[in-house]
Specification:
Length: 223
């Protein structure tokens, strides 16, 4: 793996056990996740360290949980699923995540990609997550406080772009920011959302429609 996490530095009570995460990984396998490096990353990242201590006892349940500012930490299954799709890209050098939130998905990606760029529109979340990732030793994540709805042209092209908030329509501005062999993985829709993947090939873009999902909305501007 590209980096080593400093899990002890997070502190926290009781839930640091690798055994609890091993059970999470068994569940992910039963749900169809099979990529060994993705499963290893899910076993490594201490999800309890990405939320309020009062919720930490639920950290390894397969549910999304509140992280303040009206936002949530994604369900482990969806993080693993999107990461597995990301690993299908031709190369694993540069990934862009839109919607840093608490930095859980960011950290999973940081174990598998050389560099992770991640954008968050809420200043308070961006700041708290920057501190958390620094304590945890995630040195290869570049966090930005910005509106990511048009991607990140100045750091393009990317091997993978993952959007972790749902836009009502396809975010077309991001397509030219993909390398050939790269993938855009994103939820689309409002009340009803669907996970989709667009792969950039030498001939053009190939879209695959995947399962129903439930993300917070992609919103414009920064706060
Ligand atoms: N990746 C996170 C999921 C966070 S929830 C995890 O691992 O749990 C989605 C996040 O997207 C929220 O924090 C929300 O504030 C952020 N977001 C919504 N619209 C955005 C935008 N236009 N640009 C950047 N971040 C955005």
């Amino acid at each position: 793996m590209a980096i080593r996490l400093n899990i002890a530095a997070l502190g926290g009570v009781g839930m640091t056990s690798a055994r609890t995460r091993a059970r999470l990984v068994d569940r992910l396998k039963a749900q169809g996740i099979s990529h060994p490096a993705v499963l290893a990353a899910m076993a490594e990242v201490p999800r309890h360290g990405f939320m309020d201590e009062a919720l930490a006892h639920k950290a390894y349940d397969d549910v999304s949980l509140p992280i303040g500012f009206g936002q949530t930490i994604s369900q482990p299954y969806i993080v693993a699923r999107m990461t597995e799709l990301a690993m299908g890209a031709a190369q694993h050098d540069k990934v862009l995540e839109i919607g840093t939130g608490c930095g859980y998905q960011t950290t999973v990606l940081a174990l598998l990609f050389k560099t992770v760029y991640s954008i968050e529109r809420i200043g308070g979340l961006h700041k708290a997550t920057r501190e958390r990732l620094s304590i945890l030793g995630v040195h290869n994540a570049r966090l930005r406080h910005a509106d990511g709805s048009k991607g990140l042209a100045d750091a393009a092209p990317f091997d993978v772009i993952i959007i972790t908030a749902a836009a009502p329509i396809l975010p077309e501005d991001m397509l030219p920011q993909l390398k050939v062999g790269g993938r855009l993985i994103f939820p689309v829709g409002e009340a009803e959302q669907e996970l989709r993947q667009i792969e950039r090939t030498a001939e053009g873009y190939v879209e695959t429609r995947l399962e129903k999902v439930n993300f917070v909305p992609l919103l414009p501007g920064i706060v």
